[in-house]
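Session log. Operator J.P. requested a structure for one protein chain; no other inputs attached. Running the standard single-chain path with token output.
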Amino acid sequence: MPREYASPKNIAVVLAAHGVPASDCPPRDVGTLMMLEHSGRMAERVGFLRAWRDALEQKLRVWPRTPQNDPYKAAVDELAAGLQARLGWRVLPGYNEFCAPRVKEAIDQAVAEGAARVIVVPTMLVRDNNLNNSFSLN
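Structure written below.
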């Protein structure tokens, strides 16, 4: 069976961005989520902690965003729109934490929209091991 090659019309780019909490998110929720995420495996092993962490994560990811309360997300969205206009490819932002959609969800959306090839590009180009470990596609 011949291999299908992607044409420019069915290539998509996902900008893999870190994400930050919106400035008006309740600090207690942000702090609790961070504590639960950094508790080692405890939050995974203890059901009510896992449920609490997951609920907080979802609450913060879908928090209403504006350029005023989240200039980082606004800038990533603007970058995606500018690249899309310049490249002629679909460009979708995806976030590692605090924002929606997740990187994996952006990839899934690109494929659902017909992309045969998805190029994932990190927005953080720094020399740091965190970059290699930040983006989980699970």
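Operator note: The CA atoms of residues 10 and 113 lie 9 Å apart.
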